[in-house]
């Protein structure tokens, strides 16, 4: 059984745009990915660690525990041995209370990759490879979350390319979700159900190849 940790935010948690409700496991992309991989004959377990509002390395001034760097080493330790860690973060770095750009967020991703590689796992357990997934570009924020993400679609321009660059530098795997899906037509930020389905199927293809080269 190969274990995959998805370390992410509300786009992967499966929040239904303009609500506080959540898509079922089979409807959100990590679940779709697991189902497709298992149906193909690969024995895979997807562990979801997806927190609404999680940043790469910054605190939320209104809610505790949203700094993705805090405790990630222990997450790796808890769930090891892991065959793969998927990072899909960055959207919340551009909330209106932050003055960040794509480069800042890419540096946050680098810090997370370093923390994963230096996690206090048990001796002899493999250091898991990391797949960085750039979230799709934001559209103009709409609805109740519009004030929270005001200006984010401008601040986040170039995010995928910034992530690609740091992944090359740090020899991480990279995938641009924006190459296959778009952010929600309802709120401009999250993923609509059909986009979860599309991303999950594509991620199954990407991950299947990576798992075949994994020692576990």
From TrEMBL:
<dbReference type="Pfam" id="PF13472">
    <property type="entry name" value="Lipase_GDSL_2"/>
</dbReference>
<feature type="domain" description="SGNH hydrolase-type esterase">
    <location>
        <begin position="9"/>
        <end position="192"/>
    </location>
</feature>
<protein>
    <submittedName>
        <fullName>Lysophospholipase L1-like esterase</fullName>
    </submittedName>
</protein>
<dbReference type="GO" id="GO:0016788">
    <property type="term" value="F:hydrolase activity, acting on ester bonds"/>
</dbReference>
<dbReference type="InterPro" id="IPR013830">
    <property type="entry name" value="SGNH_hydro"/>
</dbReference>
<dbReference type="InterPro" id="IPR036514">
    <property type="entry name" value="SGNH_hydro_sf"/>
</dbReference>
């Amino acid at each position: 059984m190969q274990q995959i940790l998805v370390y992410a935010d509300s786009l992967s948690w499966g929040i239904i745009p303009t609500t506080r409700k959540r898509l079922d496991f089979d409807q959100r992309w990590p679940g779709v990915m697991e189902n497709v991989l298992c149906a193909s004959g690969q024995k895979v377990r997807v562990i979801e660690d997806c927190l609404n509002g999680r940043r790469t390395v910054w605190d939320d001034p209104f809610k505790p525990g949203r700094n993705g760097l805090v405790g990630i080493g222990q997450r790796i330790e808890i769930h090891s041995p892991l065959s793969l860690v998927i990072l899909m973060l960055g959207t919340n770095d551009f909330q209106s209370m932050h003055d960040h750009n794509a480069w800042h967020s890419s540096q946050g991703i680098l810090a997370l990759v370093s923390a994963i590689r230096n996690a206090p796992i048990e001796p002899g357990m493999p250091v898991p490879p990391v797949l960085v997934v750039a979230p799709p570009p934001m559209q103009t924020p709409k609805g109740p979350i519009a004030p929270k993400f005001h200006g984010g679609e401008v601040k986040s321009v170039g995010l995928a390319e910034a992530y690609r660059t740091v992944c090359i530098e740090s020899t991480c795997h990279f995938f641009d979700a924006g190459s296959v899906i778009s952010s929600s037509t309802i709120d401009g930020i999250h993923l609509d159900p059909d986009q979860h389905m599309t991303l999950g199927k594509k991620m199954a293809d990407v991950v299947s190849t990576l798992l075949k080269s994994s020692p576990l």
